[in-house]
Amino acid sequence: MMQSIRLRAPAKINLYLDITGKRPDGYHELETVMQSVSLYDYVNIALTEGDDITVSCTDEGIPAGSGNICYKAAENFFGYTGKHCGAAVHIEKNIPSQAGMGGGSADAAAVIYGLDRLMGTSLDEAAMTDIGAKTGADVPFCISGGTRYCTGIGEVTEKLADMPLCDIVIAKGISSISTAEAYKRADSTGGLARRGIKGLFDGRDILTIAKSCANIFESVTDIREISDIKQTMFGNDALCSCMTGSGSAVFGIFADHDSAVRCADIFRSRGIFAETVHPCGGVTVF
Fold this sequence. Notes:
Oligomer: single chain
Helix content: 25-40%
Shape: globular
Number of helices: 9
Order of helices and strands: EEEHEHHHEEEHHHEHEEHEE
Mean pLDDT: 93
CATH class of the largest domain: Alpha Beta
Largest sheet: 8 strands, mixed
Low-confidence stretches: none
Strand content: 25-35%
Number of strands: 12
CATH architecture of the largest domain: 2-Layer Sandwich
C-alpha cells in the first residue's frame, strides 16, 4: 500500500449558469455547464499512524484542520469505505479563493481520489461521486472533471463532448462577492430562461460555445472592477467574457493565443491576478 501521493486538482469555470428554482431546504436548483481548466492546486496526502486527520495550506487565509472542506472529504471517505487510518493533507494553493472557481471543491475531490488510491479501495467514479455529494455541491463535478452539464444543486452531472482546445484567460481583481448575497439578489430575477442549453455545448465549435456563455449572477452584480475586466477582454479580441460561479473571477475565451497572452499581461501590469489556461480533465496523480 502506498504511503503518500501528490495530486493535481484543476479549477473550474461555469460556461453557463442559471438558477431554475429554490428548494424547501433553502438550496437553489441550478442548470450549469462546468469546465475544468489548467489552473491547479497541488494536494499532498500522507497516511499516518492513528486516526487523526490534519489539513494544512500554503495560503494562511484558507482554514486549516476541521474547518477545511478537505477534512470533511477525508471523514466522508473513511465513513463510506469503513477503512480508517490517519491522514495528513497539505494543499499548495494556486486557485484564487472566493472567485467562483471551485478551488476548495477541487481540493476535496483530490482527497477522495487520492485516499482511494492510497487505501487500495478501488472505488468506481459513481462511488467517489457519492462521497463527493456528501462533501459539497461542486465536488462530484471536480471528481470527474472535463466538460459536464450539471443540475440539482450542482451535484448531478452528465458528461458532454470535450470542449475544443483553446486559450482561456482568467482574471480576478481585489473585489469579492458574498455568495449568500448573490443568491439573494438572484432570487428577484426571472432567470435566463434558456432551456436545452447542454445541446449548445455538445460537440460544437468554440465560437458557438462562446456565444452561449451566460451567468445569471452578472445581472445582479454591479461591481465596476468586473465590468472593467470584461471590457479589457473584449478589447483584446475575446470571443466572450463572463463571470464564473457567483464571482468574482471573470473568464474570456480566445481564438488567438497571442491575444490571450497579451490580455493576461495587461491585467498583471495592473496588479490583477490573471492566468492563461486551457480546457482539461479532472483530478490526476502528479
